Amino acid sequence: MANKPSSSSLPSINEDIAAVEEVPLYGSESGWVEARTHCDHLASLSQDLTHIPTPDTQCNRCQHPNENWLCLCCKDVLCSRFVNKHMLEHYHQSNHCLALSYSDLSVWCFSCDAYLDAQVILSLHPAYETAYLLKFGEAPPLRS
Ligand SMILES: [Zn+2]
Ligand SMILES: [Zn+2]
Ligand SMILES: [Zn+2]
């Protein structure tokens, strides 16, 4: 008999406390790094993301050979902030803020300063699917 209805002894005070504590906790988990499911900058995406450079493309500036980023606005391939920061530099110069990582296929928005969920955001599907296909030789297992 563990789950008695709340009409037994001393119920209402405990329930009120629980309800009050749950509400502020629910909305206060900011700061946690989680992929966003929307972004205000998707209008700047390239119109054709089904034709993109292969994942082993070198950085266009320093020829770094792998794990580069693809600019999803102009399809330039540039190295990461852990190499020579050419993708970051490109963002500062051109304001192209959306980039796909060829190392793990994550999508980053420099303006939002956040990862974007490429499997949820419809306009990112072509880039994600094409990159996945190029990298692994098969279509991605899309969640639905
Ligand atoms: Zn570079
Ligand atoms: Zn660009
Ligand atoms: Zn954004």
UniProtKB/TrEMBL annotation:
InterPro entries: Znf_RING/FYVE/PHD (IPR013083), Znf_UBP (IPR001607). Keywords: Metal-binding, Zinc, Zinc-finger. One of its GO terms (molecular function) is zinc ion binding. The keyword Zinc applies. Residues 37-137 form the UBP-type domain. PROSITE patterns: ZF_UBP. The keyword Methyltransferase does not apply. This is Histone deacetylase 6. It comes from Olea europaea subsp. europaea.
